[in-house]
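BUG: 3D viewer hangs when loading the predicted structure for this chain

Environment: internal workstation, default settings.
Expected: structure renders.
Actual: progress bar stalls at 90%.

Input used:
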Amino acid sequence: MAYPKALERLIENLSKLPGIGKKTATRLALFLLEAKVGYVEELAESIREVKERIRLCSSCFNITEEDPCRVCTDEKRMKGVICVVESPSHVLAIESANPGTFKYHVLHGLINPLEGIGPENLKIGQLKERVEREAIEEVVLAMSFNVEGNATAAYVAEILRPLPVKVTRISSGIPYGGDLLYADPITLKHSIQNRRSI
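Structure tokens produced before the viewer hung:
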């Protein structure tokens, strides 16, 4: 038996979300169908509001509602140090281990030639400009320890080599192939504290 067209459309749209297969999308769609109208309207409004209000910080490229973001304007954070990460979710992971420590620079991906992602597709050029403009003393590379993370870290280190800046990388307490997002806060904290020059 086929579902009504409107429900099928909702299932199809939900199944496009990462980690959501057809079965889970169907379960979510049926939940929303039976939910109170007030909740569904609030959910739809919160999705619309996120698309309208959230943008990238013009300095660090993290997600924010105000520009520059609160992290970039926080005077209590380390001065002269930038922690470079792959995505906004990795900022949250590092903040859970070292709250209020770093200012960040979000690359929005890793170099991955197989998927057509080169350095020009990332915020690497903006990082170099920022290091020069803000007289940064240390850049901490906090990429995942996998092929793409290693390639990106090596490329960023090479790009920054001519500049008078120390480039370090968090230590490999993060398992090879592991994603920072899934590292426990204690391991992540020790990896950051034991970072090394590259």
